[in-house]
């Protein structure tokens, strides 16, 4: 399930830190019923040592300009949010409608409308565009024993492997699809319109994260495509990464 919220600053502009993902995440958690928020934030859905929250969100779309440390938006603005859990989005919408306003950090915006988006038609393959960067990574151990995070790029074969391994783990956490990861052996994600300018280096709180925007050709079994559409592609979806739309 996916919704789009449209809103506008109550004053001339909405001023946020350039790296505002954690503000959006906090805004989502703050507008859920307490039991849902607590379960989503503290538990998620486990698979081995991993926990999946199964929601993601886009960048803020609208007119903006960037200063040295802030980004200034002028309305109207749009934000897309999706989740495989309909009760999460239903709770979120209920809270927004009751309040009628949106609080981002210390600033308030007027809620203009909320739309439930139609699911895209499935095809193999199809083209998708990122609404937030896709990130996949491995944690490596250096010679001195220190941990190092390596972020993959779409030009590397392991980028695709990591994306589909992550997607298969999500399916297993939900108890869906084949238990054999080879089920996705014929799947692919191929850059169509992706260049150096699509590299995004972002911060989530104190963590630097590298991700990629752009347009990709995506070839997946139907149930895995809709899982990727609702929950996000790649890692760190609940931190605002991996949202896609069809084009």
TrEMBL record:
The active site is at residues 29, 41. It comes from the Bacteria. It holds the Pfam family Cas6_I-A. CDD domains: Cas6_I-like. Keywords: Antiviral defense, RNA-binding. InterPro entries: Cas_Cas6_C, CRISPR-assoc_prot_Cas6, CRISPR-assoc_prot_Cas6_N_sf. One of its GO terms (molecular function) is hydrolase activity, acting on ester bonds. GO terms for biological process: defense response to virus. Belongs to the CRISPR-associated protein Cas6/Cse3/CasE family. CRISPR (clustered regularly interspaced short palindromic repeat), is an adaptive immune system that provides protection against mobile genetic elements (viruses, transposable elements and conjugative plasmids). CRISPR clusters contain sequences complementary to antecedent mobile elements and target invading nucleic acids. CRISPR clusters are transcribed and processed into CRISPR RNA (crRNA). This is CRISPR-associated endoribonuclease.
